[in-house]
Amino acid sequence: MIDFKEVISEKLGNNIDVLKSDEIKALIEVPPNKEMGDYAFPCFKLAKEYRKSPMAIAEEISKSIPTGEVISKVINVGGYVNFFVNKEALAKKVITQVLSEKKDYGKSNIGEGKNVLIDFSSPNIAKPFHIGHIRTTVIGNALHKIYASQGYNTVRINHLGDYGTQFGKLIVAYKLWGNKEVVESSPIKELLKLYVKFHDEAEKKPEMEDEARAWFTKLENGDEEATELWSWFREESLKEFQRVYDLLDIQFDSYAGESFYSDKMQSVIDELKEKNLLVESEGTMIVDLSDENLPPALIQKTDGSTLYLTRDLAAGFYRKKTYDFEKCLYVVGSQQELHFRQYFAVIKKMGYDWYKDMVHVPFGMVALEEGTMSTRKGRVVFLEDVLNQAIEKTREIIIEKNPEAGDIDKIAREVGVGAVVFQELSNSRIKDYTFSWERTLSFEGETGPYVQYTHARCCAVLRKANQVVTPEVNFDLISDEDSSEVLKVIETFNKSILLAMSKNEPHIVTRFALDLAQAFNKFYHNNPIVVEDDGVRNARLALVEATRQSLENALAILGINAPEKM
Ligand code: ARG
């Protein structure tokens, strides 16, 4: 297989003695427009070393590089050395590789033997699984697929919020106003009502907060009634979460949530004491982080009860011991930035350098058009409703446009859910955005259904041709501009995945899928595929199959199915 960048950096290396070959390779870019070439090497870095202008250096280098089988032309443009690759060699490389590797195209085993933990989704028990959770859930799942595709052993952890003072509140509310049958008929909606009512009432009667704290302490001490209620809330909530995970086809390797660490915090607290890191402050126990420029980390409240942070600390040690992770990612909203900085800083102060392997992967907030979402005020959009509406709408469109598509329920599910997931993965994580029903349910433009439709279009062409597609074709016949554009995108697949992995940004793979769909649709509109001429037909079909396979693989990495008909 030819790696164009490799070939180019080797040729450049023969002319540049001040950079190592991997440094050269890392500098190679793709020029903004294709008339300028397929790859470009900037000479600005060299200008200092050689005490010459970048233009002069580019001119010199471009003249001394011989062209040949892979590189067909070398020119210099404003301080860049630009390379034109042989389009036939490109076609041969891409087609041969995709058609032989199939579902493995894009994969590697660079992560073999290394554990990557992904803490994601992690909803709070007895609270709705709302649209705000979709980001952590689908970004986390995509990161799992991205790492797994490169051979890492991933561990998907759902760090359920199943512990903490809010359970005291819920117990108080349930004992005052709750009804077993009503809760069982619609657990989360009912528990949410109780939670909201608690906050309304507690505003008038602040002593209710004390009562709630007392119930949580009871729970921490293993009180029977408290434990029974708590575990019932937990079970009923999990049943609801499971329905959403089933819709999204998302699985976890561990559901060890906050409560799992209730008996694992003491040893961390003891170690903090031993290391003289735990200090008393107004009755609470804290770790001073002023030398890290952070506010103190609160470890224990006045009444001795523990906090979210205490449980994360215990989880960190448990995970390090259990999985000896290479990396532990926390896919959690940007509002928790400070929490994670404090958490990692405490581990650092304790003298462990694996704090460096823990990464907070933040994402922006989802707001509603009517304002910020608020669980306490009951202003939420349920994720399950969003997914179900997307499926419904898709079903209507398919029945109208393509009633013969086959298993309409299955397709509606794959496309409807795919639309929601793809939208979530379309932007860089950190951007806040406002949830809009209209945009989520619109299938026009740069959407998941558009990519899925392009995949189905490839399938339709292949069905129509009804012949065996092989990589033994005349590559010269797909070295024209439209074909080369498609092939050039396909060629970047593995690099896109690696980049997405290094930045923990699945949207880079989303972008790949959109670029490929666009390039392919252009090719499709300009070139008839199932033509009389055997040579042309075979070559173009090979290109269609390479596109189809690459789209399928890219969608799979995003956690989206690729139906053959829609
Ligand atoms: N349950 C938390 C929330 O909904 C997220 C937990 C994230 N994971 C963690 N280890 N802190 O905000």
TrEMBL record:
It is found in: Cytoplasm. Residues 451-566 form the DALR anticodon binding domain. GO terms for biological process: arginyl-tRNA aminoacylation. Gene3D superfamilies: Arginyl tRNA synthetase N-terminal domain, HUPs, Isoleucyl-tRNA Synthetase, Domain 1. One of its GO terms (molecular function) is ATP binding. SUPFAM superfamilies: Anticodon-binding domain of a subclass of class I aminoacyl-tRNA synthetases, Arginyl-tRNA synthetase (ArgRS), N-terminal 'additional' domain, Nucleotidylyl transferase. It catalyses: tRNA(Arg) + L-arginine + ATP = L-arginyl-tRNA(Arg) + AMP + diphosphate. Keywords: Aminoacyl-tRNA synthetase, ATP-binding, Cytoplasm, Ligase, Nucleotide-binding, Protein biosynthesis. It is an enzyme of class 6 (ligase). Pfam families: Arg_tRNA_synt_N, DALR_1, tRNA-synt_1d. PROSITE patterns: AA_TRNA_LIGASE_I. GO terms for cellular component: cytoplasm. Its main location: cytoplasm. The keyword Disulfide bond does not apply. A motif ('HIGH' region) lies at residues 123-133. The keyword Ligase applies. CDD domains: Anticodon_Ia_Arg (cd07956), ArgRS_core (cd00671). Residues 6-85 form the Arginyl tRNA synthetase N-terminal domain. Signal peptide: none annotated. Its EC number is 6.1.1.19. NCBIfam families: argS. Belongs to the class-I aminoacyl-tRNA synthetase family. Monomer. This is Arginine--tRNA ligase.
